[in-house]
């Protein structure tokens, strides 16, 4: 199943000058990381370490982070001798099978060094009404940048955004972590949280409403500019962008003339601009085609905003290179198209909204 990323825009005049180009900050779609794999990418190697969780029954845990399901996994005390980490994400069913609806599931890992919770992965459950007790789907994610966080006893939080679980049917998730020995190609020596929509939320929990003037998604506390100081030992950066659209808002995209809104933000495509140090460096497309998604009981075949029922999120990875030696401070800003919601309040049922997690990783090679 294809999980392609968008092409890159190089907008600076220096891009036309080969002597200057090598000195300019560059942002390109990463070739090293995919949103997910449908077959295990390390079939020719055996993991030196492996750990699995029990199957976690997914149900609505509550409205605050403190009420998320909490699990712990024991990892090696050090991960310096591992070159790669692969997460196997198994979707399954409880008792008679999976629950009925396509719901958002988010897995967070606690970084013991700074106490922050970083989103490890996000997936949407399938329309499970037609699947039996033996149904399962497995997906594989490269989580190598998180290796410094996966040491000793490590805590994970699980969020599930639905009320469809019963004693007879519920979605489940099982996580398996495989570590592979060897010299790592890009050691992670830095990480920073850029955006986290569970903070300064305007919808009640987890997401940012889109197109509400009284609580704009572009306000400084939401998608506003962030400033990050990059350590001297960082040679390159990886920007992980996780954005999923939700809601069936019939508002208006201001810049799209004669355009009929298609239930924003779940079923409507959108774009985001990545602005670094005041310059637009790349453009991301918030869209996923479900034309080839496996059959389910509901409307799985409709295209959606970076996701499909029963699939992991289409995460975008961006490589940032040629960091200036003289100035290690970067400003990062995300801009969405202007949208005017048909709703009056950010808490209205069906309001256009985005769940946003953007993290920055720094590598010493």
Question: What does the secondary structure layout of this molecule look like, with pairings?
Answer:
Blueprint: H1 18-21, E1 26-29, E2 49-52, E3 56-57, E4 69-74, E5 82-93, E6 104-110, E7 117-124, E8 136-142, E9 153-160, E10 171-181, E11 188-196, E12 208-209, E13 226-229, E14 236-246, E15 248-249, E16 252-253, E17 264-265, E18 270-276, E19 279-286, E20 316-321, E21 329-336, E22 339-340, E23 353-363
Antiparallel strand pairs: 1-20, 2-10, 3-10, 4-9, 5-8, 5-10, 6-7, 6-9, 11-23, 12-23, 13-21, 14-20, 14-23, 15-17, 16-22, 18-19, 18-21
Poorly predicted residue ranges:
1-22
Distance between the amino and carboxyl termini: 31 Å
Radius of gyration: 20 Å
Listing every helix as H and every strand as E from the N terminus to the C terminus, the arrangement reads HEEEEEEEEEEEEEEEEEEEEEEE
Main sheet properties: 6 strands, antiparallel
Class inferred from helices and paired strands = mainly beta
pLDDT averaged over residues? 92
Question: What proportion of the residues form beta strands (DSSP E)?
Answer: 35-45%
Count of extended strands: 23
Share of helical residues: under 10%
Question: What is the overall shape?
Answer: globular
How many helical stretches? 1
What does this 3D model show about the protein?
By secondary structure, this protein is mostly beta strands. It has one helix at 18-21, and strands spanning 26-29, 49-52, 56-57, 69-74, 82-93, 104-110, 117-124, 136-142, 153-160, 171-181, 188-196, 208-209, 226-229, 236-246, 248-249, 252-253, 264-265, 270-276, 279-286, 316-321, 329-336, 339-340, 353-363. Strands 1, 11, 12, 14, 20 and 23 form a 6-stranded antiparallel sheet that branches. Strands 2, 3, 5, 8 and 10 form a 5-stranded antiparallel sheet that branches. The chain has a 4-stranded antiparallel sheet with strand order 4-9-6-7, with no helix packed on it. The model is unreliable at 1-22 (pLDDT under 50).
């Amino acid at each position: 199943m294809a999980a392609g990323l968008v092409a890159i825009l190089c907008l600076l005049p220096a891009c036309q000058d080969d002597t200057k180009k090598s000195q300019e900050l560059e942002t390109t779609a990463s070739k090293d990381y995919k949103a997910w794999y449908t077959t295990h990418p390390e079939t020719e190697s055996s993991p030196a370490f492996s750990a699995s969780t029990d199957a976690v029954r997914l149900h609505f845990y509550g409205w605050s982070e403190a009420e998320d399901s909490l699990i712990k996994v024991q990892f090696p005390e050090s991960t310096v001798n591992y070159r790669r980490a692969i997460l196997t994400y198994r979707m399954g069913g409880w008792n008679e099978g999976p629950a009925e609806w396509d719901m958002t599931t988010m897995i967070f890992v606690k970084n013991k060094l700074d106490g922050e919770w970083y989103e490890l992965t996000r997936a949407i459950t399938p329309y499970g009404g037609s699947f039996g007790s033996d149904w399962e789907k497995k997906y594989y994610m490269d989580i190598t940048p998180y290796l410094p966080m996966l040491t000793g006893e490590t805590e994970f939080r699980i969020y599930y955004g639905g009320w469809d679980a019963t004693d007879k049917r519920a979605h489940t998730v099982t996580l398996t972590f495989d570590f592979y020995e060897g010299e790592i190609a890009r050691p992670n020596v830095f990480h920073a949280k850029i955006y986290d929509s569970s903070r300064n939320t305007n919808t009640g929990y987890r997401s940012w409403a889109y197109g509400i003037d009284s609580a704009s998604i572009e306000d400084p506390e939401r998608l506003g500019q962030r400033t990050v100081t990059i350590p001297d030992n960082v040679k390159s950066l990886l920007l992980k962008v996780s954005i999923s659209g939700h809601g069936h808002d019939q508002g208006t995209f201001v810049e799209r003339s004669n355009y009929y809104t298609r239930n924003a933000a779940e079923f409507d495509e959108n774009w985001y601009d990545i602005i670094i140090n005041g310059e637009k460096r790349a453009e991301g497309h918030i869209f996923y085609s479900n034309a080839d998604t496996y059959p389910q009981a509901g409307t799985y075949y409709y295209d959606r905003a970076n996701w499909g029922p029963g699939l992991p999120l289409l995460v975008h990875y961006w490589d940032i290179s040629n960091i200036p030696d003289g100035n290690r401070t970067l400003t990062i800003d995300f801009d969405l198209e202007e949208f005017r919601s048909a709703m009056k309040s950010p808490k209205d049922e069906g309001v256009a909204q985005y769940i946003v997690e953007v993290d920055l990783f720094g590598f010493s090679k």
